[in-house]
Queue: 2 jobs
Job 1
Amino acid sequence: MLLRTLWLSLDPYMRGRMSGAPSYAKPVGIGDVMEGGTISEVVASNVPRFAKGSVVVGHTGWQTYALSDGSSMQKVEPTRGPIQAALGVLGMPGMTAYMGLLEIGKPAAGETVVVAAASGAVGSVVGQIARIKGARAVGIAGGADKCRYVTEELGFDACIDHRAPDLARRLAAACPKGIDVYFENVGGAVLFAVLPLLNRNARIPLCGLIAWYNLAKLPEGVDRTPQLLTTALKQRVKIQGFIIFDHFRHLPAFRADMSAWLRDGRIKHREQVIEGLENAPRGLIGLLEGENFGKLVVRVS
């Protein structure tokens, strides 16, 4: 079938696809179409289950048209919300938040959950699910506007600006009983502000380390490895990295729960739209520098 791209998702994992270093997925080859999740309209079809005019979600990448045999493509249900939500809260970022927090973090009522990049596509959902499960949600975000959004709009109990010079002190004040779950997708200084506050048997779902994605070599300065591993040992901390593609068995439960939470107004989401495929490269650079506010998508057509 011939697909016309309507929406393209921009996500941090794309940076890793530009590297030849060993990873969980093959890099994008020189001259190949850049990897990316998309929402597309079926323009013409020889695939019986996808009629002309259908809207589908898949990974056809940074291009205006694509050919597909229909494998790994799914129809988008417009009744669930704006179609581009299938790239965000109802798609891979939402499922990453859902699976990582509930299957690895396992927050209990009254525990404290700290979320890095709390205004982003994944972090914003993590904190709201934590609140639904009865836990305290403390976000970390870049700037006063993002922190205000996280607390006033999303309902987090607190949010700390990671640009503040006294990040560690402010985080400690917001977590007087320590941290039971730290949802990690940033790394860098945020991780090292969290470490001294981890409670015994704390859990760290690890889905990304965006602060280090552009490293060409190990950073100079203090080696924090002893602090990290000593804390993990003494506090019996569970650190588990995960890739969402390994957990699609949870897709039906995720869709049912997230659709219900959205319908009931218990989950809110925000997107930032870039107009035109030609502006996608600048958008990805901005994403890696923390410029985005919410789920970043490109309106291709």
Note: The two ends are 18 Å apart (CA to CA).
Job 2
Amino acid sequence: MDFASVIGYDALRNRAAWLDLSARGKIKLIGEDRARLLHAMTTNHIQQLTPGTGCYAFFLNDKGRILADANILCLADHFLLDVEPNIRESLYQHLDRFIIADDVTLEDVTDTTATIAIEGPASSEVLRAAGVPVPESDYGSAEWGTRTVARLNTTGSSGFFVFAPIAEQETLISTLEAAGATPADAEAFRVVRLEHGKPRYGEDISDRFLAQEANQPQALHFSKGCYLGQEIVERVRSRGQVHRLLMPLILDTRVVPEPGAKLQIGEASAAEITSAAYSPALEKVVALGYVRTEHARPHTVMTLGETHAEVAAPSF
């Protein structure tokens, strides 16, 4: 990390930092059937959401593989999907294919909407100092003039996203900095994400994996009724056929391994790393990886060559 990254990293861990996430995809769903469509397309219970609430969910294919993940916000007259930049277009097309006679209109508002993340243990205090309404519940949202504030995060720490018209981006950032938020770069956010064991679609989750393998129980609802991929999810649940789980890892080294590196127990393969970074706070490498189910317990010891590694608790 350079000096600016270190300053942002320290703020993100101990106070509050902001990051421009405007490249993240933002898809609006409008129309009377919007809740019904999303309910039939995702792994979570959309029809029970009310304005100001939200959830995290997966979109699956008919084989139960994860095509996308999304933060889903229920607002007064529409749903807003917040998604990774690399799945914005494919998810839009996926949804559009299933709109036949439904009263649903999709609108990609990514280019007209800024997204600013404010994360860290003092993020609530920063927002209050700026006069911003603070949603109390995870995935909750509140209106702030022309802006929407949602309790979301990318790092696993306390955090919020502010969605604003793109013309208000610079004013918004100035307001947050005046209230005490420090700028941080994507590298600092990524390190803290891995310190907290929070996965990211495209790095740690992809269409290689089944819903339960991603080990994100908050994305799944087991009594909501039918949805695309539900048959596979239920079969895995009822039979307990999960062979690997995404878990946080700590490696006793400063050398960051490449994605795909294999960890072993004895001569047998035990885990595969998906993403990793050096943690200045721990002075070790933190990572996420898919661990064989029989080894997916905190403090299970593995090796990567001569390097000692172990399964970590879910967050630090």
Note: The chain has a mean pLDDT of 96.
